[in-house]
Amino acid sequence: MLCDVFEYVNLGYQMQETAMKWRLFMLNVKNLTVAYDDTPVFSDVAVQFNAGKITGIIGPNGAGKSTLIKGILDLIKVKKGTVDYDGKSMKSVQKQIAYVEQRKDLDLTFPIDVFDLVLTGTYGKLGLFKNPGKAEKQASRDALEQVSLTEFSKRQISNLSGGQLQRVFVARAIVQQADIIILDEPFVGIDLQSETAIMKILKQ
């Protein structure tokens, strides 16, 4: 079973009378149950994720942490329960959520360099048949600078360390301009420097 869902860091937020305001969103999970062949992975999970906070899910291997994330994101079929984002279905707000899956689930043999991978984070808001322009390319360069990987922009992702690769996907999430960033096992197999850098970015 899942051990706990806990608030890792309360960053807080302040509403300001400016053109850019914090969105007060809430992700609601109600009585979520996932089962494989009628064998429950977890049952009746209920939790709320609020704006301005970093939240972590803990539990032993095989407890269902990744399955819970995929159930929340509507990537797998759930037996029962609901998930909504500000009262909207998850399918309707996919562009507002950035998901960084476990590295073991990634195809690192795909021939793409760091810059182009980060640039794919802009595709969701461009619309069909529209190519990234100067603004999207500059946003990708800025994101790479933010994660201290500018010099790796033309390197193939297969030639990155675990920590570097994780920072690349965080940069992709940044250019996506998502309201929510969900990271699955973000610190497994990465160096302390990368872990510290990722936490610093998320706190911003």
Report on this structure.
With 204 residues, the chain is an alpha+beta fold. It has five helices and eight strands. The chain has helices spanning 65-72, 114-119, 134-146, 162-176, 192-203; strands spanning 4-10, 26-36, 39-50, 53-58, 80-85, 88-89, 97-100, 180-183. A hairpin with a 2-residue loop joins strand 5 and strand 6. InterPro entries: ABC_transporter-like_ATP-bd, ABC_transporter-like_CS, Metal_Ion_Import_ABC, P-loop_NTPase. GO terms for molecular function: ATP binding; ATP hydrolysis activity.
Question: What can be said about this structure in brief?
Answer:
The chain starts with a strand and ends with a helix. It is an alpha+beta fold and 204 residues long. It contains five helices and eight strands.
Name the helix and strand elements from N-terminus to C-terminus, one letter apiece.
EEEEHEEEHHHEH
The percent range for strand residues is 25-35%
Can you tell me the CATH topology of the largest domain? Rossmann fold
CATH architecture of the largest domain: 3-Layer(aba) Sandwich
Q: Output the strand order for the largest sheet.
A: 3-2-5-6
Which structural class should the secondary elements be placed in? alpha+beta
Mean pLDDT: 81
Helical content band = 25-40%
Total number of helices? 5
In the predicted model, the low-confidence regions spanning at least 5 consecutive residues are 3-22
Number of strands: 8
Largest sheet composition: 4 strands, antiparallel
Based on CA atoms alone, the radius of gyration comes out at 18 Å
Relevant CATH superfamily of the largest domain: P-loop containing nucleotide triphosphate hydrolases
CATH class identity of the largest domain: Alpha Beta
Domain module count = 2
C-alpha geometry: globular
CA-to-CA gap between the ends? Answer: 32 Å
GO molecular function, one term: ATP binding
Keywords: ATP-binding, Nucleotide-binding, Transport
Protein name: Manganese ABC transporter, ATP-binding subunit
Organism: Companilactobacillus versmoldensis DSM 14857 = KCTC 3814
